[in-house]
């Protein structure tokens, strides 16, 4: 979780930390667990949760476990709506062509990325499954590596980032899920920085797949502008 600084509202910061915490625990947490994780007194946590409940951003079940509320759906719906609307048919074409799971990933902060959309193949015998909204470190997995590769080189960057910069797409092996290959390319001109990619069990010709992903990312970038 991010740290609070002097220019921020500590109360709002703590409330948002609770939402981020609950996003990582879909089965819910107790009030005590929330207070300990956020680093506030249980009474403070209670007030924060009550406020979030009033706005339908979290809820309690009959066991008094707290989880995210349905109000977040209404808030999230407009977020990157144009990007998702344009990306879906492009990702569907990509997954139909490869029989692999396609994903749309956006840079959320300096150190992490979030899966905004997952499109699973309709005719594959087996495929990789991910949860939309999943957050991963930006320097792990092909999606984040592709986004990093779109920026100028920095000291200490992974060799995989430099390689992705030369190739026009990034490849990772088992970094997000064991035994899964990721191949991603950045979407030119997208804001926030965005990549599209595939998650595969095997890639006999990763250069060919990488070129297909890169071409598809360029096409989505054209659609966005």
UniProtKB/TrEMBL annotation:
Which stretches make up the IclR-ED domain?
64-225
Tell whether Nucleus is among the UniProt keywords: no
Q: Which Gene3D superfamilies does the protein's record reference?
A: 3.30.450.40, Winged helix-like DNA-binding domain superfamily/Winged helix DNA-binding domain
Pfam families in the record: HTH_IclR (PF09339), IclR_C (PF01614)
**What domain of life?**
Bacteria
Record carries keyword Protein transport? no
- Give the signal peptide range: none
**Domain named HTH iclR-type: residues:** 9-70
Supply the alphabetized keyword list: DNA-binding, Transcription, Transcription regulation
Database matches in PANTHER family: HELIX-TURN-HELIX TRANSCRIPTIONAL REGULATOR, ICLR FAMILY, HTH-TYPE TRANSCRIPTIONAL REPRESSOR ALLR
The protein's name in its UniProt record: Helix-turn-helix domain-containing protein
Q: Which organism is it from?
A: Actinomadura miaoliensis
């Amino acid at each position: 979780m991010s740290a609070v600084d002097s220019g921020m509202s500590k109360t709002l910061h703590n409330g948002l930390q609770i939402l981020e915490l609950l996003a990582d625990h879909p089965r819910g947490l107790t009030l005590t667990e929330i207070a300990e994780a956020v680093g506030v007194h249980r009474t403070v946590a209670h007030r924060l949760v009550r406020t979030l409940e009033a706005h339908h951003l979290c809820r309690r079940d009959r066991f008094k476990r707290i989880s995210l509320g349905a109000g977040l759906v209404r808030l999230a719906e407009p977020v990157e709506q144009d990007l998702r609307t344009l990306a879906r048919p492009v990702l569907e074409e990509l997954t139909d062509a490869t029989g692999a799971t396609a994903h749309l990933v956006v840079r959320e902060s300096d150190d992490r990325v979030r899966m905004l959309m997952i499109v699973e193949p309709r005719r594959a015998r087996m495929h990789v499954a991910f949860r939309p909204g999943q957050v991963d470190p930006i320097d792990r997995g092909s999606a984040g590596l592709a986004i990093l590769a779109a920026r100028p080189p920095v000291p200490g960057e992974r060799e995989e980032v430099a390689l992705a910069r030369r190739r026009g797409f990034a490849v990772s092996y088992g970094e997000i899920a064991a035994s899964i290959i990721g191949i991603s390319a950045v979407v030119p001109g997208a804001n926030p920085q965005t990549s599209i990619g595939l998650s595969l069990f095997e890639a006999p010709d990763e250069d060919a797949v990488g070129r297909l992903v890169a071409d598809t990312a360029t096409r989505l970038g054209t659609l966005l502008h």
